[in-house]
Amino acid sequence: MLQIVKEYKLDKVVMVPVGNHYQKPGLIEEQYRYEMLKIATQDYKELEISDLELNSDKTLMPIEIFEVIHKLYKQDEIYFLLGADNLYKINEELQSKYNYIVIKRKDFVIPQNFENKKNIKIIENQVYAEVSSTQIRKQIKEKETQIELPKGVLEYIKENGLYEYL
């Protein structure tokens, strides 16, 4: 993430973790995910964690999140960062209304309707660490000893017994 901040001269990246209303198998409670992100980013002033969706009584659609962020930072030039695997959530209205930085994911093809648009920057041929909660859960379940996480996050997982860490 810091590489993207530097490369695109971004002042800040605001991360919005999904709330409890988001239905995904294995997803732990929102407060734990929020705290892990805070721990992981605590040493980086360019990274901010928002509890926007955590305070909502429903799952917010991308357009709702984008509109709230846009209102909060209306004086700034805003780019929404997302992995290419999430492009299917961005409809035509959203595509034209906002700026995007799309991180190409391994084995994922960028839809043609996203290519060659001025407001969409696609990052290709770059190596970015892919932190996958699925992979972390698997490593914990298999009791692997070398789990690469930002400083303090694994300790938080252990202290709170997350992902069935015993």
Give an account of the 3D structure:
By secondary structure, the chain is of the alpha/beta class. It has a single domain, classed as Rossmann fold (3-Layer(aba) Sandwich). It has 6 helices and 5 strands. It has helices spanning 2-7, 30-41, 62-72, 92-97, 133-141, 153-160, and strands spanning 13-15, 47-49, 79-83, 99-103, 120-123. The strands form 2 sheets. A 3-stranded parallel beta sheet has the order 3-4-5. Strand 1, helix 2 and strand 2 (47-49) form a beta-alpha-beta unit. The two termini are 30 Å apart.
Looking at the structure, what is the overall shape? globular
Which structural class fits the helix and strand makeup?
Answer: alpha/beta
Average pLDDT rating? 83
CATH level-4 homologous superfamily: HUPs
- What's the total helix number? 6
* Amount of beta strand: 5-15%
CATH class: Alpha Beta
Q: What is the CA-based Rg, rounded?
A: 17 Å
Query: Which blocks of ≥5 consecutive residues have pLDDT under 50?
Result: none
CATH architecture: 3-Layer(aba) Sandwich
* Helix-strand topology string: HEHEHEHEEHH
| Major sheet characteristics | 3 strands, parallel
Strand elements, count: 5
Main sheet strand line-up: 3-4-5
